Amino acid sequence: MGRSREFDENVVLQKAMELFWEQGYEKTSMNDLVEHMGIHRRSLYDTFGDKHTLFLKTIDCYDELIKNKIQAEILHAETTKQAIQFIFDFMIEGYEDKQWGCLIVNSATEMALRDKEVEEKTEEAFMQTEHFLAELVRKGQQTGEFSCDYDAELLAEILQNTLLGIRVLLRTSASKEKMHRIADFFVNLLNK
């Protein structure tokens, strides 16, 4: 009879996610993971597989976590403009005071060119975000909040790229004030 796990798989997966998020894939060693996750190396391999498989699982975990947080907050927005402003503010201010940028963007810039699985996961996340943003823009256009001078999909592409740029800037010494100016300028462009 096998031993039961002495840890909560979701809790240790989140710990691994945070370590990869903060340090990146290449800089994170198996020893770092074992220590940070608080589990034995054998348990890590038995539960999550190798480092690469664990990393892919943490990308999925992060993607779900962020989507749930954003969608929950957007439900409370009174206007589409407030919803889009929240997305910018959320990205700029960080998640639970973590100032490590975005794990999806970090993973794409670190590994997508040389790792097909990471490329597929990050591209899928970017595409889903772009579709979600297009829905928001369309809603704003339908309610008369946003200008209809441009196609919602085109605006969503530009919005997505603005958000990607901000998420890259988060990993630099750029000021939050600068990022908020960029966000505010874009949101004002959407106005009718």
UniProtKB/TrEMBL annotation:
The protein's name in its UniProt record: TetR family transcriptional regulator
Pfam families the record matches: TetR_C_13, TetR_N
PANTHER family, sorted: TRANSCRIPTIONAL REGULATORY PROTEIN
Keyword Nucleotide-binding assigned: no
Domain HTH tetR-type: start-end pairs: 6-66
DNA-binding region residue numbers: 29-48
Annotated InterPro entries: Homeodomain-like_sf, HTH_TetR, Tet_transcr_reg_TetR-rel_C_sf, TetR_C
GO molecular function: DNA binding
Protein's UniProt keywords contain Transcription regulation: yes
Record PROSITE patterns: HTH_TETR_2
Keyword terms: DNA-binding, Transcription, Transcription regulation
Gene3D superfamilies, A to Z: Homeodomain-like, Tetracycline Repressor, domain 2
